[in-house]
Amino acid sequence: MAIATVMTPLRFFVVMAVLFAALALNFVPRMDASGDEPHYLLMAKSLWLEHDLDLQDNYAREDWREFRSGPTEPHYAAPRKDGRPFPGHAPGLPFILAPIYGIGGRLACAVFLGLLVAGAGALALGIAREEGLAPGTALLAGLLASGPPLVAFALHIYTEAAATLALFGAYALLRFGRGPWPTGFAAALACVLPFLHPRMALVSLAIAFVALVYRKQGSLRVFALTSALGLMIYDAFWTSVYGVPTALGAYGGVPEDAAFNPLRAGIGLLIDRAYGLLPYAPAFAALLFLPTPRPNTLDAPAAWRAEVALVLAILLPALLWRMWWGGQSPPARLIAPLTPFLALWVARGFDTARPLVRHLILAALTWSWALFLFAALQPSRLLFINRRARPTRMWEALWPGGPLDVALPDLARPVTADWWIAAVWLVAFVAAALVSRTVFKRARSMSGTSA
What we know:
- It contains 17 helices and no strands.
- It is mostly helical.
- The chain is globular and about 70 Å long.
- α7 runs antiparallel to α8.
- The longest helix has 39 residues, at 92-130.
- It has helices at 2-6, 9-27, 37-50, 56-60, 92-130, 135-145, 160-176, 180-196, 201-213, 220-242, 262-271, 300-320, 339-350, 355-376, 394-398, 404-407, 416-450.
- 60% of the residues lie in helices and 0% in strands.
């Protein structure tokens, strides 16, 4: 507990930044870029060296060989209005990474994204302290926030680390900031998010809702003016590319293979063996058994409304997005930005939880970080990378020939048995949650009677 007492947000950030940088130095040189990574890196390289996003010459020269040894097919979206191909990925991350790529290539980009993940953990620790949580509980919040599933994106070139810190930072600025400057900066972060990924447009609207919730301590006028400027830039950029003021031009409109199956997506995002949240971060299952995690502060109602709005804004597009079940990426990619909010929610319930629940949370946290390090220290085994055509290698690596794969459903390519496995897990969760909440209410009632 002595470590927790002296662990300030700055010290936490430094420790985690050093850890992630050390892991990246081992990980990046020993593993090819995969999935969308080489395309984000190629966009950053083109922006830095050629100041454009016309990648035809880059693919023709096979510039991607700097990042991977195998063949790499172009990822093009719908053609621009002048007929030239346009990259099939949002340009926000490449714009951010372009100067960093110029400094140190792919490794520097990975180290930078590790800094963003460390920043999200440090910010969660700081918020927990602001809410009056015990030092050990605040440290728990930091470790959960910078841990799985978000931590996988400290080693891979995807948008999740940048989107998470932008979103969580905007929330912190609006909740704890005073005056026009924090409000304006939060609005600027909200404007950046749709450039990182089209599905983040809903998150930007949720940030505007948070600004409205905290309007008395900020400046709605500054937020509105900054947002209006950002919207003009956003529309002008996409109009210059596609002739329409929306990033959906990249898909020619709503994607044809969009899967409007939120039930399957919701279950899969929760417990799928490759893409699910809980197999890699089981500590968050505690939220099913803890009381409603509102902060114990004067602004508790406002903070709770703000957090729920932001969490829903992340979750709802993921329930309809077509790639959650088949994209080549680390686990829980589409919902990784939930990590720091879920971390705060678990931390708020930790101190008042029963000893058994606290021990289980700590055990689950240990499991998550051990699983991450197990994969991060073995880059060549590709334990982070999932895709629809190939099941995750993680569980086979942990227990060759063992039952871990059988115990978890594969909802990327479900057969009847997978639905039965998923049903068993869901029934177990619901039953345990009902029992836990009944015990909690009974204990609270008895303590009230004794008083």
